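Ticket #294: bound-state structure for NAP.
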Amino acid sequence: MTAANRILVPVDARTSLVTLIGDPVSHSLSPLIHNAAFREHDLNFAYVAMRVEESAVSAAVAGLRALEFAGANVTAPHKQAVIPELDRISEQARAVGAVNTIVRHEHGRLEGDNTDIAGFLTPLLPYADRLRSAPITVLGAGGAARAVAYALLTSIHPERITLAARTPEKAERIAADLAEFDASAALNVSPYESCRDEVRRSSLIVNATPAGTHPNVDDTPWTHPEDFSSDQIVYDLVYNPRETRLLREAYDRGAATIEGLEMLISQAAAAYAQWTGREMPTHVVREALRISSS
Ligand code: NAP
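RESOLUTION: The complex was predicted; output attached.
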């Protein structure tokens, strides 16, 4: 690390603290992202990452409360487990059953939100008109796929969302849980191996599986790149590496591509706005991320 990319944060007796809790957290880019933004805004905030074991989630949230942290992010595997520890959760966090952001409000009330939903949608906004009434395929049926399906149902209103799952029962569960947001019965489930026609027809294909994540960078969630074409958008939630094999192969066939890092920055910006009341200076964040990876 050079002097140029070291993000210095002022820490003194009045510093407001924000933390990431999860297990593991040592790979996280969130401290870099938020500290760069705090610094740019000259805010006396500091962001740290803390590994919290499953058995200590309740104590960790009690600690945030007692120590008057300004807020927190929550990552895997604790996004569900923190919910009963909070005073209130937002409607969208309830809908997807997961909290990734905690905000301390008046009288020390801790409120949970899910900014993965806004984070996923923000990079898609330029394509929103094109996606309305179009077919979409989401690969995967975990927590991220659930947030993606909710975001698409409530904000994009596509004709059809196919959840392509290795374990279809998990996708069926998502469809059942989100039924109240699916008045036009857009959500349907397909086993992974039988959704090739749907992938070819889809205007947007979202990878919500970890396939392709470092160090397994030669993996891809879709082994038929010939199914991609220039009238499609391929969105990979994986952000390490930025350019995954999936995105490279989609790009080579003319598809528009969206990197997972865009979602990571947008979900962070939505949390930052709640903690600080300020709009995250994303140009500074991008610069910090670029420097840290060079
Ligand atoms: P998760 O709850 O563990 O779910 C993973 C899903 O992917 C499961 O349905 C799993 O199927 C499926 N899967 C795993 N490997 C697969 C493969 N090789 N082929 C097909 N399906 C496979 O994980 P998650 O929380 O949903 O996260 C998924 C990915 O999204 C992770 O890489 C995460 O880092 C990323 N993410 C990124 C952001 C961002 O800001 N960019 C935000 C959230 C998540 P089974 O159930 O059959 O195992």
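RESOLUTION NOTES: The radius of gyration is 19 Å.
TICKET STATUS: resolved
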